[in-house]
Amino acid sequence: MSELHVDGPLQPGDRAPNIVLDAITRDGTIALQDFRGHSPILIGLFRGLHCPFCRRHIAAQAQLGAALRDKGVESLTVVNTPIERARLYFRYHPLPDLLAASDPERVSHRAFGLPNLEFTDHETEWPRKVGMDVVMSMQVDMPGETPGPMNRLAAAEYLNNKDGYEMMEADQRMAATGQGQLFGQFLLDREGIVRWTFTEVPEGGQRMFGAPSPQELMSAASQVAS
């Protein structure tokens, strides 16, 4: 598959590239081209399963799957996790009717214009690079999940421990090269045109590890489905 590099995340009105990835939750491959002319699709381009925030975002998207299908909108989850590791995870943590694909090389993320941040000591040039001083100053508060506001690295460690998530060699390889991969969700219409997005790119990093509300996402889906 040829790679398409774009300057920043795709925006509403842009045509999405065709991507072809190995399916996790079924045999064969999944291509965005297969949906064109048939149905709108919400594609979530997440970090690897080693990221506890993305595991929660994936579950949240999956929970909307039935409501999206009621509107005629399909849903696809893409993770930066090698396929065998991803299959093992979803075997023990199944999500009903999840359509998921593996992209350990992050080809789809680049094609949709999502940056992979470089971490530095003190130099920040968002969204290409970010200083660890900035990262450590970013607080995340997840009521019911964390005991209170925590910096994002501490929160990630806390959540992984809480989940009992065991970092395997495949996870460590993904984290070594893609820890700074920014995630995004893109809602495409039947013709493959982007109609709505949520990414971590805007607002200088304040969106990192955040996600759209179900109401926002379903409202966008209603517009695309109408």
From TrEMBL:
InterPro entries (UniProt xref): AhpC/TSA, Thioredoxin-like_sf, Thioredoxin_domain
Domain Thioredoxin: 10-226
Name used for this protein in its record: Thioredoxin domain-containing protein
GO MF: antioxidant activity; oxidoreductase activity
Organism: Bradyrhizobium diazoefficiens
